[in-house]
Structures are given as structure tokens and as C-alpha cells.
Amino acid sequence: MTTLLRKLPPSIIALLLQLTAVMLVVMTLRLSSLHPAPLVAALFCGTLAAVLSHIAGMARWWLFIQFAFAPALVLMLALDMPPGFFLAAFLVMLAVYWSTFRTQVPLYLSSNKVWRALESKLPAEQPFTFIDLGSGIGGVLTHLAHTHPHGRYHGVEAAPLPFLWSWLRIKLRGCHNCSVHRGSLWDCDLSQYDVVFAYLSPVPMDALWNKARQEMRPGSLFISNTFAVPDHPPQESVTVDDLHRSTLHFWRM
Ligand SMILES: C[S@@+](CC[C@H](N)C(=O)[O-])C[C@H]1O[C@@H](n2cnc3c(N)ncnc32)[C@H](O)[C@@H]1O
Q1: Residue 51 has what pLDDT?
Q2: Residue nearest atom 4 of ligand 1, based on CA coordinates
């Protein structure tokens, strides 16, 4: 059972545990013929869901979500908002986060200071090719396309709204040396690029390293913002003086 659970994405495990907690609380209340206020019942559900999630070994921040989910649901229902509001909010979240529940790589952005730190690692004069794997809203690409116009920049982004945003950004800024396509980074051929940049999460780093090792040309540069590769220390790491103290990791292939 535990092995089966571990194969599922955390969001599905969280949902299953949340449903289990609700079922257990409803059954207990029926057997004990107690009738607590909905918010109190929801707090029971949240507490039990958080305990079950802790036992299942979920990350700490999931425990907070599990605890708050049912009470937040009760409070939102009490506000009596039109159902269209929830549908609209869901559709916006879907367009921004898309398959995050599966990839475990949400949208967050590299800082301007990271953009500037990247500049110093790009060839100063010769032409080169650069890809941002999971290019978000295209900030890295458009910045570098401006400061290093002798490079060719490409981005791949899975989520529809960030992709659309980056596509518009590239068009509006007139970056002729820059393009972006909607798709999966796992379908990109990394042998086409001199510099491969990724700002993802700890989850895909092992698989991404294997892909980079197989596909990238000798002498090309693999850069990861913040997330290291397990058991493969970078040749160089640079800490950037931004809000998150981001660290750029560099591997010359
Ligand atoms: C942390 S953001 C980084 C955005 C941008 N590269 C930056 O540094 O500002 C990661 C992005 O990767 C995208 N992403 C996650 N998995 C992906 C995949 N398999 N293929 C393409 N994009 C993916 C997410 O939608 C998200 O926009």
C-alpha cells in the first residue's frame, strides 16, 4: 500500500488522504450522534488529514495545505459567492500551472540579478545558441536576447498562459533572435544548444541530468538555477545577491 502511494503524484496522495479523513470524521460523527458546526467538523477533517499526511511522509508544507483545505472550503461556501467565480479562478490557475500537479515544477521567476549573472557566462562575441527549459513568461530569454544579440535564444514552456505571455513579450520587444514553443522540455533535443538553462525544482533534476549527459555536446554549458543534481556536484556555483540568495550551478559537459 505504501509503495503504491509513493508512485502517485503528491497531489493525488493528498486528495486520497483528504477523502479518507472526511469519511472517517463523517462516520465517527454518525456513530457518536454528535452534530458539530460545519467549521468545527471541517477542523476535525483538516487535523486528521494533516496527521495522515504526516504518517504518509508528505513534505511539511503539504501538512499545512491538508489542515487548511476543509476549513477554507467551509469558509468560502459561507461567503456564498457565485459558482462562476470558482470556475473562473480554476481556469486561470489551470492556464498558469497546467501540469504542475504531475511535474511538480510550478511557475516562479528568476530574478533580474540572476539574468545579469547569466550574462557574464555567455560568449562575449561569437554566435551561440541558448535554451531555457521551462521558460515561464520569457524574462530570461528577452533580457539575454537584448544584452547579447549575437546569440539565438529559444524557450520551451508547457503551461498555456505563461507560454502566451512569453510569445507576446518576444513579439512586442521585437526580439528577432528569440523564439518560444509550447511543449515539453523532455521532447527537446539538447544537442542543438551551446547553453542549456533550467530553473525547475528538485524533482526532475536527476532525469534532466541524464538527458543533458546523453544529448549535450562536449564543451557546451548546462546551468541550473538553485537546484543541484544529486551526486553530481557542479564545477562552479555562484550565489546571487537577490531576495532568495539564488545559486547558479554550472556544468561544462
Ligand atoms: C520555475 S519556472 C522558471 C521560469 C523561467 N525559466 C525563469 O527562470 O524565470 C519553471 C517553468 O517550467 C515549466 N515547466 C515545468 N515542467 C515543464 C515541462 N516538462 N516542459 C516544459 N515546461 C515545463 C513550468 O510551467 C514553469 O513555467
Answers
A1: 96
A2: 136
